[in-house]
Specification:
The protein contains 4 helices and no strands. It is mainly α.
Length: about 60
């Protein structure tokens, strides 16, 4: 399955894909340190740190 077909299927059943993605990333941010998230998702360190902060994460390093 590719991203476009997955997005179409999610929309057909009433699941907004962007919200699901955002929720999944925020949940990950609560479970892992920002550097791990940055490396896994190929994000900038500052972006990953912001995501952790927005999710209410408490990782200090």
């Amino acid at each position: 399955m590719n991203p476009a077909s997955l997005q179409a299927h999610l929309r057909e059943i009433g699941v907004p894909p962007q919200r699901g993605r955002t929720s999944a990333i925020r949940q990950l941010a609560l479970q892992a340190p920002a550097p791990v998230i940055a490396k896994a998702l190929v994000y900038d360190d500052k972006t990953a740190t912001r995501l952790v902060t927005e999710a209410g994460g408490t990782w200090s390093r």
